[in-house]
Automatic annotation (TrEMBL):
The chain crosses the membrane at residues 351-372, 384-405, 425-453, 465-486, 492-512, 582-602. GO terms for molecular function: ABC-type transporter activity; ATP binding; ATP hydrolysis activity. Its main location: membrane. GO terms for cellular component: apical plasma membrane; ATP-binding cassette (ABC) transporter complex. Belongs to the ABC transporter superfamily. ABCG family. Eye pigment precursor importer (TC 3.A.1.204) subfamily. It comes from Dimorphilus gyrociliatus. This is DgyrCDS2619. It is found in: Membrane. SUPFAM superfamilies: P-loop containing nucleoside triphosphate hydrolases (SSF52540). PANTHER family: ABC TRANSPORTER G FAMILY MEMBER 28, ATP-BINDING CASSETTE SUB-FAMILY G MEMBER 5. Keywords: ATP-binding, Membrane, Nucleotide-binding, Transmembrane, Transmembrane helix, Transport. GO terms for biological process: cholesterol efflux; cholesterol homeostasis.
Amino acid sequence: MRSPTTPTTEYSLSILGVSYTIKSRTILRNISLYCGGGNILALLGNSGSGKTSLLDVVACRAEGRTVGGAFINGRLVTPELFVKRGAYVLQDDQLLAHLTVKETLTYTARLKFAGATKNIQVTQRVEQVLNEIGLKHVADSKVGGAFKRGISGGEKRRVSIGCQLLCDPVVLLLDEPTTGLDSFTANRLVTNLSQLAKQYNKVIVMTIHQPRSDIFRLFDHIGILSLGELVYMGPSSQLVSYFTDLGYSCPHYANPLDHYVDLASVDRRDIVRESNTTARVRSLHGSYLNSNIFKDTLSEVHRSAATASDLEVESIFSNPWTYLDPPGFAATWATLFSRMTVNLIRDKPSLLMRIFQFSCFSFFLWLFIIRLKKNQESMQDRNGLFHQLVSVPPYVGVLNAVALFPTLRTTFRRESKDGLYGSTVFLFAYFVHILPFHLISTFIFTAVVHWGIGLQSEMFRFGRVWAVILLLHFSGEVLAVALMGVFKNEAVANSISGLIFVIGGLMGSGFVRSLEGMIDVLKWSGWINIFKYTSEIIVANELNGLNLTCSINSTMPCLYPNGNLYLSIFYPKAVKCMARNFIVSFSYMIFFCVLALIIFKITKIRKSRMI
Ligand SMILES: Nc1ncnc2c1ncn2[C@@H]1O[C@H](COP(=O)(O)OP(=O)(O)OP(=O)(O)O)[C@@H](O)[C@H]1O
């Protein structure tokens, strides 16, 4: 296998006449640039000048309308080509807090490389990348997050870069990689990127705010954007002389990058300043279009397009680490499942919440009721308990999803944009990885309620209650996940799913008021309500064959000497339809899973334009 350290092709990124419009607003206008392999191009400009939008366009992730195109070695960049030969490091480090640096890279490598790639090759590549990004010394340290201290901010940024380097991309885009880092760490990071570019012949394009003057020397090319147009794009060595020739010399001791970004910024403090500075930006843009530097750029772009011979086009795919043949569904599922499970097991508070939040509620119910009696007065306690058995499990499922799913969703959104996997395998892995925890927590809950509080004790009755509670708990989490595919804000998903379950429980269970007494619309809507079926199972399971004594001293008439009489009045078909009710309830759970899959597919097509 050829080493990725021995590039054979002269790589390049060029952009020709790119204009970008979103919601009828022009964000970028007629941008052309060229950057050869082994070079870093730094994009500068005041806030809102269009730097990130330009990276989005190159990475084929822009949501609006694009004219013109970006080219790698003269070949038009399509989403497919960018996935194979490009990489994009976003501004935020979206890493799983409980994995080590090495594990983070290893899992990402397994998601990138074909299933046939041997473990030894994955390990070898991860070691190489750890060396490249200078993180060998923290390879076994946990990444850390908001609630757990881990590696430093600069090291996290390197891990994010490392994840993108695994496939040895030709073009590496980075959105503000130095933001939030102190100047020493920022310098080290850019030095590291510069070495990577030189050593591996990569094209590195990064946006940056206020770089220190010592970082300036690390940039080979500088692009300065203002109002979506370039006012300079050329060698960093010519920046000062270019602007000096235009009459804008850089004062002694001033940082040229700061100085010329300020010069190209629009001052919006008042109308006079705004029109003067806008006129200056337009004039700078006009001068740039007439400059030899711009002409040289255009001729480089055309040269690279003209020399994009088949041989070159093919050779840019020849790297052994290129993501040519992605792992199959099973391999991807196994990697995602393992990563989610490891991350959850190491996250002690979340793990305890998953297992004990629900089961602890059963101890409260136990304290609340202590022990069910077998007299007819106990029917009220039984009804209350039945209501809790169907209404609490789904809602705790919702709470679990709202607390733990968003981090994984963020990772999924990023990795799916990187082309690593789709929503089906992601959700399938998520649903399977929560199942063991659901089994444990619902088992504890059911055992305490069933035997502690004193439902009819036979094992088969316990099994039915456990199955219903598991089904409802799981359905609750799945529905919340589905809603989090629509709503970016998990609080919205929480309140909507909570509302669905409260209303559903009231209308379908018959525990709060008799189903027969409700108005027809509500009565019939019960047929499309999972609570109708699960409630009937719970009631029939407990009351069928239950004898209730009547106290001689009681002032109450003896209405329900046994559970079957109660069932015949309020749930006449519950015993007979037990199997049907199980099938329908199970189908609801599957329906929620399919709904989640469809929602995530649709929102992916809509390119995460979520509410
Ligand atoms: N999806 C969008 N919808 C509407 N406007 C957008 C969208 N994306 C970008 N813009 C607008 O395009 C302009 C350029 O945004 P962009 O993020 O590219 O700027 P930037 O130079 O990267 O800014 P910053 O340095 O602050 O990150 C901004 O005015 C922004 O409001």
